[in-house]
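Write out the bound-state structure for zinc ion.
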Amino acid sequence: MAERITPRAENYSQWYIDTILQSKLADYSPVKGCMVIRPRGYALWEKMKAGLDGLFKETGHQNAYFPMLIPESFLKKEAEHVKGFSPELAVVTHAGGEKLEEPLILRPTSETIIWSMYKKWIQSYRDLPLLINQWANVIRWEKRTRLFLRTTEFLWQEGHTAHATEEEAQEETIKMLMVYKKFAEEYMALPVIAGIKSESEKFAGAVQTYAIEGLMQDKRALQAGTSHNLGQNFAKAFDVTFQTKEGTLDHVWATSWGVSARLVGALIMTHSDDRGLVLPPVLAPIQVMIVPIFKNENKAQVVGYARKLYERLKTQVSVEIDEDDQNSPGWKFAEAELHGIPIRVEVGPKDMEKNQAMLVRRDTYEKIPVANPEVETRVKQLLEEIQNNLYHRALAFRKENTHQAEDYQSFKKLIEEQGGFIESGWCGNADCEAKIKKETKATIRVLPMGRNGAGNRTCILCGEKAKELAVFAKAY
Ligand SMILES: [Zn+2]
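---
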């Protein structure tokens, strides 16, 4: 381990950067605002991608690929869409040594190019639903960037679906929101709140945006995925109509939904500690590291013993063995911790004598001696236990840091001194929302689903009867 990681208590954002750079997940690129994802970071993204891709296919979606260059005129077809994205667009004006007749946009999102194709592909209700996902990179020119969380170019997936009815599109919007919630909770061990975005926070061009929000260790919220009901907005902009069962002509109903590699940032900020990454076993590229502890005179025996364990484990889990004889065992332990490997298996001469191995948990640092024949069974159990523990630890943290505020004074005090999620009433008025944001930097993260609405609450700012229960937080 090369350098010290700044402790979280000293400087949380420096800790985040140190952790990423030292664990070799990513590095800065020559172009400001872009990042290089290194093999360890990409392996993690690939695991996340595989998990999500499986869930998309289970729910009937297929992958396709659309070009990254979009004619400028396409973006202008949907008025709110172009207004929302204009400040972030990168535009190609010259290519092949000539000025282009029409500038081309580097995709910030693909609704427009996809709907221009859907116009060709959809004629009848028999062509619906059309359920397509794309894995791609997008460009949004960001002024303030941060590794994984906000970069000018980023990796993501974007689902784009077309439906015959408004009800079907709404059903799809919620279905994919729940897919994201499942992924966050069961794979990432990240508890999230699912809900509706307020008008001011919704996607440019959507009728309604839904999102999942998680709480990071520094008590700031992070949006981990969004699902949009686009109504007929894009079908109208691109004139995509279809013949209904009844023989009439109607515009197609649409959804889009996406998550990005910012989830890697969410994963780091939810679980990791001052020694480096802590990864949930389901997503850890390496789940077990075996470290044989030997001296020159007993190296052959100890390594032989460790290799037998390795051969048994490798058929069941993702495992590596560190036989290097340049570095000390202590160095290797620290290295395994830095990279967030969920279980370290230590085997030394004493373990050989007792015919056992020492299992060490990354999440709690607990050491567990296990009899040799039981190692595989115990390792698999322990991986599940760690996955569960990470989820429940994060859930307990969120509960501790979710507050209720009844009046604006206590709301401001909570935001300033405690952070976390604050649940309050809101009248539904955008002016109140904007004023709260200006004065406290807290935004409405979501209007949570599955709750009983505003009840008897009053708006936290104006005191009018509340229309909504809103979850406020300072966010990434
Ligand atoms: Zn109000």
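---
The longest strand covers residues 153-163.
DSSP finds 14 helices and 23 strands in the chain.
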